[in-house]
Amino acid sequence: MKRVFRKVFSSRKTPSAPSSLPQNIEEIRQKALKGHHLEIVQWGQVLLNSIYVPKDPVSALEWFTIAARAGFGPGHNMRGRCFQFGWGCEKDLTEAARCYEEAAKAGDEWGRYNLGILTMRGIGQPQNLPKALALFRTAAQNGHAKSMNLYARFLEEGWVVPQDRAAALDWYRQSAEGGDYRGQHNFATALADAGQVEDALGWWRKAVVDATSDILLAMSQKLALLGEKRDQALEEHVQIRLRDLGISIPENVNVRPM
């Protein structure tokens, strides 16, 4: 580990930290400096997007690289995120896919999920739906809520797997209970379609808090179809979130998000 530190930081000094860091952040920094793998990744994330230190994506990538070279799955995964979005480096989708592949091999469920997304869409590598299915299924079975939602979608649609809507509903439920807003929306949609509107509204109320624009637009459309069972307060919450994101609601939109 010491050799890795020397190699990575041989051409520059380790970034200094403000003296007024909150105790929990300072503890992460100190453990990172001592070579603890989890805290190395966490300190990189602090440098990437924390309000407590100036953003330094280049240094963040270097810390993720240290963890990755030590064989730590989350380090590979965060390196992949950097290359996918160009954080501290030039965007390189092929390298991002390679990093996610290494993360998945190391047993990191976020790495499996992110590799599954790229593989499903053919980003940074050829599209391969059977491989994407296998990645989502493994991560779902290991408790990864976002992967549960996508595994459910494969089952619901019958993509490279026999269609099984009952199993899909159960995986959507597990994803929703695991806190994934996409799973919550999809589970709520299935419940509403089955006439269980009150239960559906409960899950939509959870989903609206963190949902991205695609889910909010789909939610708005579904809520408008509930007739006398519509929840005006929830619909207003959706509208407010969309306005905050600078998005107006188009008419006749019928695109189902993942």
From TrEMBL:
<dbReference type="Pfam" id="PF08238">
    <property type="entry name" value="Sel1"/>
</dbReference>
<dbReference type="InterPro" id="IPR011990">
    <property type="entry name" value="TPR-like_helical_dom_sf"/>
</dbReference>
<dbReference type="InterPro" id="IPR006597">
    <property type="entry name" value="Sel1-like"/>
</dbReference>
<protein>
    <submittedName>
        <fullName>Sel1 repeat family protein</fullName>
    </submittedName>
</protein>
<dbReference type="InterPro" id="IPR050767">
    <property type="entry name" value="Sel1_AlgK"/>
</dbReference>
